[in-house]
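Hi Y.,

Following your request, here is the sequence exactly as I used it, all 185 residues.
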Amino acid sequence: MAQSTPEAGSGGGLAGAGQGATVPVPSAAGSGPISHAIFRLARLHRMFAGQLLRRIGLHPGQELVMMHLWELGPQRQADLVRLMDSDAATMTRTVRRLEQAGFVRRRPCATDRRASLIEPTAASHALRREVEQVWAQLEDLVAADLDARGRADALHTLERLEYNLVRAAADPAACPTDTQTRPAG
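Below is the corresponding structure, written out as tokens. Let me know if you'd prefer a different format.
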């Protein structure tokens, strides 16, 4: 499957392994080259995911909600917020859109009268194979020139970076507050 590459702001073609950024790196980002690379990678990944998911009637992030529902069964919306590390407003919009598309339905929760359970519909189960194919295509795009060892190394590095951020989020002392980072004046 041929994919187009983003042209706006590409600064030329896509760079190969070790060839540097595909867009100019501002000098202000010079002290954070890994963070800038993560930003660029996340932006491109989301763009390609959006293109692939649009073909099956989903927006990025909706497939992740569906994956959790397929795997775990019906969930309270608050549990989906926690699972997805999301916020209530975003999850409400996501569930509403999935419900309008016919992929989920709400039913009362037997143990909590204030809550409802979000459950996948039969239509969503037909969508599962397509979501799995989209994720396989996305993986092939991302890791196109990596062998099995390169893929394992990339995954290990990404997991380590995620672990570092999770650890920092759990330790308030690790991230200075706004008042600590702003110049006095």
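DSSP finds seven helices and three strands in the chain.

Thanks again,
Q.
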